[in-house]
Write a structure and sequence with these properties.
By secondary structure, the protein is mostly helical. Helices cover 52% and strands 6% of the residues.
Length: 126
């Protein structure tokens, strides 16, 4: 009887480990599609609140500001022009970045009239 219980507990533990790995894979896939992270960690909005006034991006103080010249957007635009019909995962691979960033950038380029989407691929607008 004891060996039956031990083997059953081991089977359950093995299955739980398999399921945990599957959950991690699914969370990573979801994050790549949606651009957000789900899972363990702080819930959205629970981060440290800033009490001082906002500083400009170039204000020093050790805080890194964002570059506003659209370098990656320009890289993505050039890739679309060079290979019409290219998909976001292909662009991300070529730029060596995560695709979730491009799911924000490419629609912005489309709303600016620089590119257009046809099916899964992106094409130059003109």
């Amino acid at each position: 009887m004891a060996s039956f219980v031990d083997s059953t507990v081991k089977d359950i533990d093995d299955r739980l480990n398999d399921l945990k790995q599957e959950v991690r894979r699914l969370e990573a896939a979801r994050a790549a599609l949606v651009g957000t992270r789900r899972g363990p960690g702080r819930p959205p909005g629970s981060g440290r609140r800033r009490t001082s006034t906002r500083r400009s991006a170039g204000g020093g103080g050790g805080r890194r500001g964002r570059r506003r010249n659209g370098t990656r957007a320009n890289q993505a635009l050039e890739l679309v022009k060079g290979k019409p019909g290219i998909t976001i995962p292909e662009i991300a691979s070529a730029m060596r970045i995560q695709p979730n960033y491009l799911y924000r950038v490419l629609p912005r380029l489309a709303s600016d009239g620089q590119i257009k989407r046809q099916g899964q691929g992106w094409h130059p607008a003109g």
